[in-house]
Design brief:
This protein is α/β, with parallel strands linked by helices. The protein folds into 2 domains: about 35-50 and about 290-399, Alpha-Beta Complex (Aspartate Aminotransferase, domain 1); about 50-290, 3-Layer(aba) Sandwich (Aspartate Aminotransferase, domain 2). It has helices at about 50-60, 70-85, 100-110, 125-135, 155-160, 185-195, 225-230, 240, 255-270, 280-290, 290-315, 340-350, 380-399; strands at about 35, 95, 115-120, 140, 145, 150, 165-175, 200-205, 230-235, 250-255, 320, 330-335, 355, 355-360, 370-375. The strands form 4 sheets. The protein has a 7-stranded mixed sheet, sandwiched between helices. Strand 7 (about 165-175), helix 6 (about 185-195) and strand 8 form a beta-alpha-beta unit. The termini are far apart.
Amino acid sequence: MKEIKHGTPKLRYDFDTAVDRRNTASLKWEVSARELPMWVADMDFQTAPEIQEELLKRLTHGVFGYSVVPKEWYDAIQGWWDRRHHFHMERDWLIFCTGVVPALSSIVRKMTTVAENVLIQTPVYNIFYNSIRNNGRNVLESPLVYDGNGYSIDFADLEEKLSLPQTSLMLLCNPHNPVGKIWDRDTLARIGNLAAKHHVLVVSDEIHCDLTDPHREYIPFASVNRECRDNSITCIAPTKAFNLAGLQTAAVCVPDPVLRHRVDRGLNTDEVAEPNAFAVPAAIAAFTRGEAWLDDLREYLFANKQTAAAFFKEKIPQLKLVPSEATYLLWLDCSGICDDSEKLQTFLRRETGLYVSDGAQYGQTGKAFLRLNIACPRQTLRDGLERLRQGVERFAAST
C-alpha cells in the first residue's frame, strides 16, 4: 500500500490513480468521449484491496451455485455496528436483501395499501418517489426548511402530515441525500415520537451512514430509544461506502418480531432475499477487513470537499455550496444565477461535457440546485470544477 500526502493525515491507500471505467458497461460512464460524469452516486475508486482478495478467492473456486447466508455475515454486520456505530443488533433482526432500493419497494408494498400516503422529507433521493408511485401509493412531501445555509425540519408540518389518517409510512433518509445532513439524536427522537403517536411506521434508509466526515458519527434511528427501535425498519449496506453497488448486497434490520415476519415475507415473495455468489463474501470482507481503507477514504473525500469549497469561493462565487457532514455528494445552490436546475444542467452538459444531477429530480424544493459527485481522484475533481466554472460563466453570459 502506498502512502500519500495531501495536507491531510498520511493515507495508506491510493485514491489518486485514475481508473478507466469506459467500456465496462458502467451506468455512470456510458457517455461520450468528451463528457465527464459526476452525477450518479457511485465512486471512481477501486474497492478495498482486502475485498478484492476475498472476491478473487471466491472467483478462483470456479463453482457458482446457489448461495446461503452464513453465520459470518451476521457476525460481520453485528460487529461493525457495535464497533463503529455503538448499536447492538441481534442476529434475528437481520435479513439479507439484494439492495436497499428493492427493500424499500418491497416494504412499501407489504406494509401499506394502495392509495395510502408515504411521507418523505424533500429534497430527497429521487428513487424514493419511484418506490412510492410505482406501487400505487401517494407521495406526501414534508419539505425541509432551507435558510440559505443549511436544512432543518418543520416539525409542525411534519406532525400535521403524519397525523393524516391516510399516512401509514415514512421514509427517512439518515444521513440525508442529497443535502448531506446527519440528523442528531434529539431530532431523531422527535421524529420517532411523532411517528409512534400517529401510528406511522418509519423506514430509515441508512446506506450513506459510513460516509460521514472524519470524526463525525451518524446516529442509527433504531438506536435512539425503544420507541424508535420498535416502530422502525432500517435498510443498510456496504455498497455506498465500499463502492460495491453492482454486487447487490444489503441488509434489512427489523427489531420488532411482528414487523420482521411481514418484511421477511415481503422480501421472499418479491424474490430479493437470496444472495449471488459474491454478495456475501464482499459484505463480510468489507465489515471485517475494510475499516482502515474506509477511514482513508473518508479523509480523502473530506479533502475533496475542502478543495471544492475553496474553488467555489474563489472561482464560482455565483454558486453556493451547502455545508454538509456526510456523503460525497455536494448540494449546490444555483439560485444566484438560475431557478431552473434542469435548464442549467442541460446547458453544462452540452457546453462543457460536465454531467451532473439536476436538483429538480429530488423534488420541487431542489429546482434551484445541482448535485455534484466528488468521489473521484483529485485530478478528476479539478477537471470537473474547471468545467463547471466555464459553464457557469457561459450560462451567465447567455441569459
